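Need a sequence for this fold. Nothing fancy.
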C-alpha cells in the first residue's frame, strides 16, 4: 500500500446515516461498526451482529469501550487511536474480536476516521471480515497433509503387523483344537484369539483410513434412509433397556442427496453409538434433524448444485467434551473411551468427504454434543 492510499479518510456529510445508507449497509457481508466523536456506537449492521453475536439494540448508544470487542494485546483499541487525534489516517490489521458469548473470532479489520467536507472529525468506522472459516480451512489443509504422511507410514507398519498376527491367530486356533473342552488352559487360548481379533480389527481400520475411499454415489431420499438406520438403533436401545429416547425433526418433502448407502450407514451408526455411549449413564434424548440449507461461504470442497445442501444434525444430551478434546476428535487414535481405538470418527470424516460433504462437531461439557453433516442437495 502506497503513502497516498495510507492517508485517505472517509469524508461524509452530516446526513451520512440517512435511510439509503443504512439499507446499503445491511446488504454487505462485512461487519460495519461506526462511533461518533464521544466513542458511542451509532452504526452496527447485520453482518456485525452475526459475527459478534450482539444485537443492534444491545450496542447502539453505548460506548465502544464498555463492550468486550477489543481484547488486550490485540493491537489495542483501534477506534480510540483514530479518535485520539493522533496522526493515523487508516489502520488495517488482523486481530481477535471479542464476542457476546465470551468467545473470540479472528477478523480482518480496517479502521478509518470519518470527516465532514471541512475535514472536521465526526467519528470513526471499523469494517471487519470474519476470517475464522478461512483459518479453519487452512488448519484442515495442514492437518490433511500431516495425516497423509502419517497414514503412509502407518499403512506400511500395518502390513508388517498383519503377517505375524495371522500366524499367532492360526497357531492359537490349532492349540485350542488340541485342548480338551474342560481344560482350563482353553480359556487362556480363547483370550489370545480374542486379542488377535481385536488387533486385526484395528489394523483393518487403519488400512481403511490410509487408503483412498471410492464412494459409489447414488441418489437417495435421506429422510427414508435415515429412518431405516434409526430402526436398527431403536431395536438396540430397546434390547438393552437404555433410558434414551429418539426425536426426529424431518420435513414432509423429500430431501435428495447422492450418497454411498454402505459408507453412510457406517458413518451414522458410528455417530449414533457414540451418542448412546455418552448418554448411557444418565440417559437423555437423541435428536436428529434434516433440512435444506444454503452452502456455507468459502466451502468450495462441498460441490453443491445451486449452492444448496442437506443438513443432518445429530444432537445428544450426554457428557459433552471440552474445547481441547473437540479440536482433536477427528485425529486418528485419539479417543476418550477406554474401549475405543480412536479411528471411528477419523474414518467417518474421510467417508463423508468421499461423498463430497463435510462434518463438524460442537460440544459443551455436561450439556451435550452436536454433529453437523452437510451433503450436496440433489432434487
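Here you go.
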Amino acid at each position: 500500500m502506497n503513502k497516498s492510499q495510507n492517508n485517505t479518510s472517509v469524508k461524509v456529510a452530516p446526513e451520512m446515516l440517512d435511510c439509503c445508507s443504512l439499507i446499503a449497509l445491511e446488504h454487505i457481508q462485512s461487519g460495519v461498526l461506526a462511533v461518533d466523536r464521544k466513542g458511542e456506537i451509532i452504526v452496527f449492521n447485520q453482518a456485525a451482529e452475526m459475527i459478534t453475536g450482539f444485537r443492534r439494540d444491545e450496542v447502539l448508544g453505548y460506548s465502544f469501550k464498555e463492550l468486550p470487542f477489543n481484547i488486550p494485546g490485540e493491537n489495542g483499541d483501534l477506534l480510540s487511536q483514530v479518535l485520539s487525534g493522533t496522526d493515523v489516517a487508516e489502520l488495517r490489521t488482523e486481530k481477535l474480536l471479542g464476542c457476546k458469548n465470551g468467545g473470540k473470532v479472528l477478523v480482518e479489520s480496517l479502521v478509518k476516521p470519518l470527516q465532514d467536507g471541512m475535514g472536521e472529525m465526526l467519528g470513526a468506522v471499523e469494517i471487519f471480515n470474519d476470517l475464522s472459516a478461512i483459518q479453519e480451512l487452512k488448519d484442515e489443509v495442514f492437518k490433511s497433509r500431516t495425516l497423509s504422511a502419517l497414514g503412509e507410514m502407518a499403512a506400511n507398519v500395518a502390513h508388517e503387523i498383519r503377517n505375524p498376527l495371522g500366524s499367532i491367530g492360526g497357531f492359537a486356533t490349532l492349540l485350542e483344537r488340541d485342548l480338551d473342552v474342560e481344560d482350563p488352559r482353553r480359556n487362556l487360548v480363547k483370550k489370545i484369539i480374542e486379542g488377535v481379533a481385536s488387533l486385526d480389527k484395528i489394523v483393518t481400520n487403519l488400512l481403511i483410513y490410509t487408503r483412498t475411499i471410492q464412494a459409489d454415489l447414488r441418489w437417495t431420499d435421506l429422510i427414508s434412509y435415515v429412518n431405516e438406520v434409526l430402526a436398527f438403533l431403536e431395536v438396540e436401545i430397546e434390547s438393552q433397556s437404555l433410558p434414551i429416547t429418539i426425536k426426529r425433526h424431518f420435513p414432509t418433502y423429500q430431501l435428495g442427496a447422492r450418497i454411498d448407502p454402505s459408507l453412510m450407514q457406517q458413518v451414522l451408526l458410528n455417530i449414533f453409538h457414540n451418542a448412546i455411549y455418552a448418554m448411557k449413564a444418565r440417559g437423555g434424548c437423541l435428536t436428529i434433524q434434516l433440512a435444506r440449507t444454503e452452502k456455507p461461504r468459502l466451502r468450495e470442497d462441498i460441490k453443491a448444485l445451486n449452492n444448496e445442501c442437506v443438513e443432518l444434525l445429530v444432537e445428544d444430551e450426554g457428557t459433552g467434551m471440552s474445547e481441547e478434546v473437540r479440536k482433536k476428535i477427528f485425529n486418528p487414535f485419539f479417543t476418550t473411551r477406554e474401549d475405543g481405538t480412536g479411528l471411528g470418527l477419523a474414518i467417518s470424516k474421510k467417508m463423508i468427504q468421499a461423498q463430497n460433504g463435510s462434518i463438524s462437531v460442537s460440544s459443551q461439557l455436561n450439556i451435550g454434543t452436536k454433529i453437523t453433516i452437510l451433503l450436496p442437495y440433489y432434487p
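For context: The first strand starts at residue 10 and ends at 11.
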